[in-house]
Design brief:
Largest sheet: 5 strands, mixed
Radius of gyration: 26 Å
CATH class of the largest domain: Alpha Beta
Shape: elongated
Protein name: ParB/RepB/Spo0J family partition protein
Order of helices and strands: HEEHEEHEHHHHHHHHEEEH
Pfam family, one: ParB_N
Structural class: alpha/beta
Number of helices: 12
InterPro entries: Chromosome_partition/occlusion (IPR050336), ParB/RepB/Spo0J (IPR004437), ParB/Sulfiredoxin_sf (IPR036086), ParB_N (IPR003115)
Organism: Faucicola osloensis
Keywords: DNA-binding, Plasmid
CATH superfamily of the largest domain: Conserved hypothetical protein from pyrococcus furiosus pfu- 392566-001, ParB domain
């Protein structure tokens, strides 16, 4: 999905930026503006763009760019926006990092003013015209800036993609912080297509979210260690979930009641052919709660 999505976003975002009144700035190839006064600004006065979706600027790519700048000079200034006593990068973070790597004290800049919405789109656009982004990197940036748009429909329109493609990227929202940390370090291990399949699978199997995440974590670790192919992850999750269900709950199992706290399942009452099982997460119970549970069962069984 990634290369096709990049090409589509690159084309559509460029058209959208021009449609929103930036065409007169001659914003070309999703990079710095080609017109305007160039100023030399101290490197230590410049901050990276918070809208920057790229997670990985490889040393190799920065070294190559730094060598080129050292030999030929900075052929294209970066675009910045003034914020108090500092300047935030709008476009050109790779060039900024390369110049900083060379130990230079100043860098050529064009000072511009953009809205938060267009700042996010410009940062996305620059990256899409450069090195390959993973689906996760694209999704993380898009998810981070959804609050700048009134609805997902309007956001999809601004990005120039269908709502279906946007929802596929939003499927990464099912992951918790631990799984997102794994993707921060290994952004290419899973695609948006696979994440969407997993989200659908969880609903189909009716697996509680807090039970689903550990299975995903195990699967991610296997992919990272090259013991599992990404394409096999849905089958791996399905098999693990089915095995867990059959081991924990024999045939003719009925969940009589589930207990939730802040949207998270913390316990359930299960009835089988031979057993009546009460499951509660101990982390949600203090010592006084545990004593109440024990007293309840003592009284229940002593009267039976």
């Amino acid at each position: 999905m990634t290369s096709q999505l990049q090409s589509l976003l690159k084309e559509k975002i460029n058209a959208n930026i021009k449609a929103h009144g930036l065409a007169d700035k001659e914003f070309a190839e999703f990079d710095s503006y080609q017109s305007g006064k160039i100023e030399q600004i101290p490197v230590d006065k410049i901050k990276p763009n918070n809208a920057q979706p790229r997670l990985e600027f490889t040393d190799e790519s920065l070294d190559k760019l730094a060598d080129s700048i050292n030999e030929l000079g900075l052929l294209q200034p970066i675009s910045v926006q003034k914020k108090g006593d500092f300047y935030n990068i709008v476009a050109g973070e790779r060039r900024f990092r390369a110049v900083k790597k060379l130990g230079k004290q100043f860098i050529d800049c064009i000072i511009i003013t953009v809205t938060n919405e267009n700042n996010a789109l410009l940062a996305l656009a620059e990256n899409l015209s450069r090195e390959n982004l993973s689906d996760y990197e694209i999704a993380k940036a898009i998810i981070s800036f959804k609050s700048n748009f009134p609805s997902k429909t309007e956001y999809a329109k601004a990005l120039g993609i269908s709502r279906q493609k946007l929802y596929k990227l939003f499927a990464f929202e099912i992951l918790d912080n631990d799984l997102l940390a794994k993707l921060d370090n290994h952004p290419n291990i899973i695609s948006a297509d696979t994440i969407e399949q997993l989200a659908t699978l969880r609903k189909h199997l009716n697996i509680p979210h807090d039970e689903f995440l550990p299975l995903l974590s195990e699967g991610f670790d296997l992919i990272i260690s090259s013991h599992l192919k990404q394409s096999k992850l849905p089958d791996f999750i399905k098999n693990k979930a089915n095995n867990s269900l059959s081991n924990q709950h024999p045939t003719n199992t009925k969940v009589r009641k589930s207990y939730k706290k802040e949207g998270k399942t913390i316990g359930k009452i299960i009835q089988t052919d031979k057993k009546f099982i009460v499951e509660l997460e101990s982390l949600n119970l203090n010592e006084a709660d545990l004593e109440k549970v024990e007293v309840f069962f003592d009284n229940l069984l002593s009267n039976s």
